[in-house]
UniProtKB/TrEMBL annotation:
Residues 91-226 form the Reverse transcriptase domain. This is Reverse transcriptase domain-containing protein. InterPro entries: DNA/RNA_pol_sf, Rev_trsase/Diguanyl_cyclase, RNA-dir_DNA_polymerase, RT_dom.
Amino acid sequence: MDPEVLEDERTSKRQTRYGAAILKDPSDPYYALLKEFSDVVSDDPPSVLPPDRGVRHEIDLVPGTKYCTTRQWPLPKEQVDVIDAFFAAKHAAGMVRESKSPHSSPTFCVRKPNGKWRMVHAFNKLNAATIPASTPIPRKDVQNNMAGCTIFSALDMVDGYYQLLMRESDIPLTAVSTPSGMLWEWLVMPQGPSNAPATFNRLVTQLFRPMRQFVQTYFDDIFVHS
């Protein structure tokens, strides 16, 4: 995004936001910097299966659970087309594959504030049968660790869940149906499982632990301070 300057009543504070849009303007003073690191400021998330980063999403079911299945309901054609295009792209990237799983959760869309569609999987039955994770959730008082600093950088991940692999044995549990009659299963962590935030936070914490003196993390938000 273009630089933005905010003023308050007491002091002058400058908040500058930079993103992939700068890569379209070679005259921008920060063009060279963002060009060098264009792989981390892209508007488009990686379209390949991610590497094994040491943490995989695991789904442990309550003992005695059999099948978590909910019938897919009809949707308007516009949503059906969006869903089919979404899974076609994810299949081409190797993130999903056709499934024969006895489990199945329906898929639908909700409209985002920007007018685009958000993909939603109704994992209600799966989540109800999932043993809750005990991974510590980050506290908002991580701000205290940034006290005394004057320069801050906030980084927000794009589609971070899709950068984390599923445990192989749990892939059939992620099976989702579509209105066009397809059944897909996720090889990466989908959005919707109840323990997904805890798994993602565990990965982010592990990756940035060596830099914790100047990097704070809160799920998919990363704060660098000095």
